[in-house]
Specification:
The chain starts with a helix and ends in a 7-residue tail after the last strand. β4 and β5 form a beta hairpin. The protein contains 8 helices and 12 strands. It is globular. Helices cover about 30% and strands about 20% of the residues. The chain has one domain: 4-Layer Sandwich (Purple Acid Phosphatase, chain A, domain 2). α2 packs parallel to α3.
Length: about 350
């Protein structure tokens, strides 16, 4: 009788675990970087709030760090890969990212599609503003196979069985703000419906929540352009599908932090090219998502200059209304950008149905 009971227990465990072993994963490790704003030396290139002259080295060093990590399943680049959609910078990013040992996937940022030419400012070099950047379609075709699969600038795929990832295009030509248009929203809804049995992570450049009160209206420097203008509409679609536990974005240039809105965690990521210049490594299991955010190795001189440029004249536009010039404002601004308390963390997965 005892042997018969043990046999039934074994059979029960096999049946219980069979769908998981066939259609799911035990552990996935992936890296995230955002906003490298890569700028090969050219007319007007200099280290400002975005460390343009150091940007190529910073991106290469981030790739080198990822290549040291055993068992890395993939890497996500969350947009603004170039300074301003320069063709030569697109090529530099492509050749650098191709050095990754793990697969990588990219979403488009507002600095990755051609800017609208404007008259040069008084005293600016004559060449400034005269180049023509790449179009959105050129960008997506350049990175075919790295998320993009066809003409659409948005994509989805399964990097491992049981995990579905989505890359959205949130950009509006001519401005640095964002939106998700009706046809993309319809696609998102259909894609989520078709993949209801897979844990899903959504990646985008612009975000769907605010990180400071200044982003809630246009009253302060058009900071309402940090989230997409139809964020509630996007969130409403994501909330329809319990397999969506996480939405990850860049654009804001601040250290990793998260918000929970209606059971979905929204996570923002720092820039490669501006202080604090970090990359993030995630570990995903059926039960939780954990991460470690690390400083990208760079010379002490570059790190010191990036910090000074963040709180100095070069970073004035990035100051929020409650971060005035002066020691107190500088301290608050650095704390806001560094977010040291979130450099490590873990969050629960809400999706249970396939386990």
């Amino acid at each position: 009788m005892k042997r018969f009971k043990k046999l039934w227990i074994c059979l029960f465990m096999i049946v219980l675990l069979l769908p998981w072993s066939a259609n799911g994963f035990e552990r996935v490790k992936f890296g995230v970087i955002s906003d490298p704003h890569t700028a090969m030396p050219a007319s007007g290139t200099k280290d400002e709030f975005k460390m343009q002259l150091s940007s190529v080295d910073l991106l290469k060093n981030a790739v080198n760090e990822f290549n040291k990590i055993p068992g890395l399943d993939f890497v996500i680049l969350l947009g603004d890969i170039t300074l301003n959609a320069e063709p030569w910078n697109v090529e530099m990013v492509k050749s650098t990212m191709d050095g990754l040992r793990a697969p990588y996937y990219i979403v488009t940022g507002n600095h990755d599609i051609s800017i609208v030419p404007t008259p040069p400012k008084p005293g600016a070099p004559p060449s400034m503003g005269e180049y023509i950047g790449v179009t959105r379609s050129v960008f997506s075709w350049t990175f075919q196979g790295h998320g993009y699969n066809g003409p659409n600038p948005w994509w989805s795929l399964d990097p491992v069985p049981g995990l579905h990832i989505i890359g959205l295009d949130t950009n509006v030509p001519g401005i640095w703000g964002g939106t998700v248009p009706a046809n993309e929203l319809a696609w998102l809804d259909q894609d989520l419906y078709a993949n209801r049995d897979k844990l899903t992570i959504v990646f985008s450049h612009h975000g769907f929540v605010t990180w400071h009160k200044d982003e809630e209206s246009a009253a302060w420097k058009q900071y309402d352009w940090f989230p997409v203008d139809n964020a509630r509409e996007v969130r409403a679609i994501l909330e329809k599908y319990p397999q969506v536990s996480f939405s990850l974005n860049g654009h804001r240039h601040i250290g990793v932090r998260y918000q929970k809105v209606n059971d979905i965690y929204y996570i923002v990521h720092p820039s490669v090219s501006s202080y604090p210049m970090r990359y993030t490594v995630y570990t995903l299991t059926p039960n939780e998502l954990s991460w470690v955010s690390e400083d990208i190795p760079i010379s002490p001189a570059v790190a010191k200059k990036a910090k000074a440029n963040c709180i100095g004249k070069d970073g004035e536009w990035w100051r929020c209304s409650d971060m005035p010039l002066g020691a107190a404002g500088d301290k608050k601004m650095l704390e806001f950008f560094e977010a040291k308390e979130f450099m490590k963390g873990r969050l629960p997965v809400r999706f249970k149905s396939y386990r």
